[in-house]
Write a structure and sequence with these properties.
By secondary structure, this protein is mostly helical. It has one domain. Helices cover about 50% and strands about 10% of the residues. It has three helices and three strands. Strands 1-2-3 form a three-stranded antiparallel beta sheet. The radius of gyration is 18 Å and the shape is elongated.
Amino acid sequence: MPRYTPGPWKIRPNGELWSYSRGGAPQQIGTMYWSGKSEERDGNARIIAGAADLCESLDELMLIVSQPEVVSAIQSSPRIAAKSRMIIENARTSLEEVTGKRLPEWPKRDPHDRRLESS
């Protein structure tokens, strides 16, 4: 996955964007300037601040739902299969947009991703 400044991110009231990476010292990574209504600025700031965590969560979601036992559970339940496919496809598409990386269509998985394999 492409690199980005680790999260979580926080935007201060003055528009400074800070990274509070887990285990690291906080560092300023940018400053945001925009016009508009206060509530819109606050909402946009929250979306930007949550972007790193959302990207990491989508990556983890795709890793988990592509495991054979999870694929089997989803596909064997007509009650959840269609909605699950839609959610997974939306997650995959969003992650592709954010990372610029082509991801395999579900239920296929990246054969090079070894994060859940036993050592």
